[in-house]
């Protein structure tokens, strides 16, 4: 596939220009190739992922977390090593952060919400997806409220195990039954008060800091920490399948397995 056409399609499909972000969403490292024959998909842009890309003869890597953020303005130390490995092996890097979290077809949040809907065997009309929280005037994170209460033990079922997600449930509210869950991807336990104010029984996010945990316990707000990498490796596979089916291009998922 022509590289310029590929980048143009990514920009439009992911709605890159609609978001303000700390990540520099777009082509972060170019290469000399005009045709892209094989795409690699990964959560993070790091040297050992690029080693796998080299082994797989990948022409371009697409990641959720890229090399360049607002706080990295120079190619020194680790950013230099990452960029050097790509340039030396003529591999391009395209990264996309918040636009992927909010995408209507391949975003992490909506797929995890539907995973819970399936886990609880909820049928149409038994639940409602609602907007929970926005970032720069764009709603990215959502919540579920369901009519019939579910036992909280259902949050740690074999189905959740099958999804290979890291589970840490802290039932600070001491509720036995729940009927609402809010989802905020990434490191967002700082928004626990938002969940408390909107009367969500459980607040789900990917990472936490100690002071945020103590605050959640003070509020008696139950939380579930599901693991940043384990939850965000969903989108690379969905985006990979999208490109495979639409353009018949060769794809590979570059798993970190740390």
Spell out the key features of this protein.
258 residues; alpha/beta; Udp-n-acetylmuramoylalanyl-d-glutamate--2,6- Diaminopimelate Ligase, Chain: A, domain 1; 2 domains; five-stranded mixed beta sheet; 10 helices; 11 strands; 34% helix; elongated
What does this 3D model show about the protein?
- With 258 residues, this protein is α/β, with parallel strands linked by helices.
- It folds into 2 domains: 3-99, Udp-n-acetylmuramoylalanyl-d-glutamate--2,6- Diaminopimelate Ligase, Chain: A, domain 1, CATH 3.40.1390.30; 103-228, Udp-n-acetylmuramoylalanyl-d-glutamate--2,6- Diaminopimelate Ligase, Chain: A, domain 1.
- The chain is built from 10 helices and 11 strands.
- The chain has helices spanning 3-13, 47-55, 77-88, 98-102, 108-119, 158-162, 192-197, 210-219, 228-232, 234-247, and strands at residues 26-29, 38-44, 60-65, 92-95, 127-135, 138-151, 168-170, 177-184, 202-205, 222-225, 250-253.
- The strands form 2 sheets. The chain has a 6-stranded mixed beta sheet with strand order 5-6-8-9-10-7. A 5-stranded mixed beta sheet has the order 1-4-3-2-11, with helices on both faces.
């Amino acid at each position: 596939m022509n590289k310029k056409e590929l980048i143009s399609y990514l920009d439009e499909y992911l709605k890159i220009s609609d978001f303000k972000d700390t990540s520099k969403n777009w082509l972060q490292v170019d290469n000399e190739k005009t045709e892209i024959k094989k795409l690699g998909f990964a959560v993070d842009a790091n040297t050992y992922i690029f080693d796998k890309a080299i082994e797989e003869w990948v022409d371009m890597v697409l990641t959720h977390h890229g090399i360049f953020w607002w706080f990295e303005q120079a190619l020194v130390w680790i950013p230099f090593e990452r960029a050097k490995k790509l340039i030396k092996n003529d591999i391009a890097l395209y990264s996309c952060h918040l636009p992927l979290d909010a995408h209507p077809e391949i975003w992490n949040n909506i797929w995890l919400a539907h995973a819970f809907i399936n886990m609880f065997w909820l049928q149409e009309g038994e639940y409602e997806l609602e907007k929970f929280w926005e970032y720069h005037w764009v709603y990215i994170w959502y919540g579920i409220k369901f009519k019939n209460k579910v036992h909280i033990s259902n949050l740690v079922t074999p189905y959740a195990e099958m999804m290979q997600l890291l589970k840490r449930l802290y039932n600070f509210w001491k509720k036995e039954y729940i009927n609402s869950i809010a989802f905020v991807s990434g490191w967002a336990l700082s928004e626990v008060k938002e969940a408390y104010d909107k009367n969500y029984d459980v607040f789900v996010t990917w990472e936490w800091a100690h002071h945020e945990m103590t605050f959640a316990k003070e509020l008696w707000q139950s939380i579930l920490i599901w693991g940043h990498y384990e939850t965000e490796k969903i989108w690379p596979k969905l985006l990979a399948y999208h490109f495979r089916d639409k353009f018949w291009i060769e794809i590979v998922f570059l798993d970190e397995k740390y």
